[in-house]
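Chapter review: from sequence to fold.
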Amino acid sequence: MEPIVPPKAPGEPPGGSADGVRVQAANAVSAVRGFLEKTLVIAELEVRKLRHDPTELVTRAVQPALWLLVFGEVFTRMRVIPTGGLRYLDFMAPGILAQSVLFIAIFYGIAVIWERDLGIVHKLLATPTPRAALVLGKGLSAGIRGLSEAAIIYVLALLLGVDVNWSPLALVGVLLVVVLSAALFATLSLIIASIAKTRERFMGIGQVLTMPLFFASNAIYPIAAMPTWLQVAAHVNPLTYEVDALRALMIAGGTSVYGVTVDISLLASTMAALVVIGGRLYPRVAT
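The token string follows.
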């Protein structure tokens, strides 16, 4: 008796299930490639804006310079904050880099509101580009801006005698952490813009968030020196893990409390979750 061959499902390729799996895998790879290409196009469009106003990067460097020159130098002389054996200026430099990245990214959503008023958001939503790619592309462009801040902080650190770790692997790690963190906070900013919808309301929320995020972290003092309630807030603050990774990578002799791998994993997973949320909320900007 001949074996009974079940009929093929509609659309199944001639080669059977093995060919079907290969086709599905090829389609998945193609979809991922298309998503990444669209993301990079959006990021490139955003970065291109810097050529029209490069002074923005210089003006944003003023605040971290003041923190390092004034706050850092004074507290280095006072020696009142426990730093685990590091000179206070060395301890503080990664925190000021994290602060610069935060301040660049957290107000990134204001540009989306401007784009809505100019009709750009409506045009982007009319394209077949995935909403998550739009959000991720804008987040990555904030990461590029963050790299320019990192370069400025490194120059200031060199001038102030900060004991910087110049290992190529450490430098690559710093770049990765900066890009991830900037993309994370920029995506959070886009979510806020999608909810707030007006420039005035957005600016109010952004200003309320920046100081608590900065001071409820280990940027300028260790978590162990905080009261218990603030320690709880610090442990759920993404900026804490950014600073922890930067302190281990950027400073010679610096160490990580949680582990650099854990820090980067938490930043990446949080960013991914915010991209998904931002992709769902982004169309609300246009309404």
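Two observations follow directly from the output. The mean pLDDT is 83. Residues 17-286 form one domain.
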